[in-house]
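Hey all, sorry for the wall of text incoming. These are the three entities for the joint prediction.
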Amino acid sequence: MKATSDAKIPLPNRLGIKGWAWAGRYKIERYLYTLHRITGVGLAAYIFIHLIANGFRLGGEDTWEGIMSAFSNPGIKVGEYLVMAAFIIHALNGGRLILQHMGLTLGKPNPPIYPYVDSMRRRRPLTWIMLAVIAALAIYVLVEFVISGA
Amino acid sequence: MRETHFKSLQYLTGIGIFFLVGLHLLISHLSSGEPEAWSSVAKRAASAGWLTIYILILIFGIYHVMHGVRGIVLEFSLPPTAVKALNWAIIFIGVAIFGYAVYIPINAYMV
Amino acid sequence: MEKLTFKVQRYDPDKDKKPSMQVFTIPFRHGMTVLDGLIYIKENIDNTLSFRSSCRMGICGSCGMLINQLPMLACHTPIEELHSDKIEVKSLPNFPIIKDLVADLSPLFEKHKSIKPYIMTAAVAEEIEKPTAEFLQSQEHLEGFVQFAYCVKCGLCMAACPTVATDKHFLGPQPLAQACRYSLDKRDDGAKERFKQTDIPHGVWLCHLAGACSEACPKGVDPALAIQLLKRAMVADGFKLSKKKASPTVAAPLSEKKPKITVPEFTIKKPGAK
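and here's what came out:
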């Protein structure tokens, strides 16, 4: 029998960033978790750039108009649309998360009777409705962008 | 119950940002009549109402962003002994950004 | 299907630096589970394959593994439900590997112990020390938490959780769900004690409701729901909105003493007895 001091240390097996970024075969809420984080980080990065760009306001009308004309190219417009879409996704998904974190829309505990249906699955229709609203708003904003750009 | 209070503020600022930034997006970016032109920008800069909205957006937004970033940094197995240093770093960076950002609308309003 | 291809993770701590995959081909039998396949491999092809199993009926929680990229109990997973003749089996992620498919679940047990998973009540401390009768609990009270009491500590939820994947200090779905189970129990008075363990930077607030834990749970415990109910209880407590729980009541002693029933003698005598 081996002595305790000869016992090997178990090999670490944590999934790391791949574990939270890659939702694999899990359901929609797991994907929304990753999307919420990506949109959050994207919006945070945009806000810093936005604050710096707004600082040019202090340079007066000529400086401001110069900056605005530099931002008028199509690449920036696409980026602005993505920021709007990220805001819509993060805001509406955040609203769903606030309600569900407070246990408000998840229903009551049920003694598990096979086949088990967890609260995420029971409330999935509400998640799909939220996604439909996100899609509708994203399309509306896209139309506004195209109209104002054209 | 410190973490609970921090997270509750995260929820409240999230709701606040939804309404305030939603209003900001509608008026400043999506409405007709060239909202990004100097004349519109100068008009909003002179309004006390808009100044209040901008300051509130900055307070809510910077808290919400910094708390979110704190959560992401914690999730990279930050040792419990380093949490205090992280908290102070977050506060310092948040106050610095707020200080820079709030100067712009206040200065524009005063001019 | 007649044959199955099992791609199984192998890791020998004495020889290997990292795990590798080994392919086995085994005959298919209608109704077989992944565990049956592993036992066939161990008995007929390679007896060095190591894995944990015990009850083979989904109640002990020993055989948790990553099967076709989802954490499942091997005994509880019929091959036909995988809809494939290629089965990839790895050890449970987010837990260290001891050997082959055997994971070290001690991080789970340590975190579970840290949230004090037992009834704590100061109001009837004497009854706890010297029990005289059972605590009364209505069916409604029981249904408020009994779902979370079905946990078998298999660790599948911890393997599925995206926060556990990156944060080794995060408590995880199982301990948090059990903290909820005990805090919601009307017989328990120790919610505030437990909140000290869950209201930490690496505590309950790093859960962002990915829902993978509830999806992975083989016993329908729904740890995601438990965690959100725990958050609600903590917010209510943090803002002094929670109602004071009534002290647990003990069942009253029997009102009448019935005479002891004597056990009758057998009428049939044993062979050879007089």
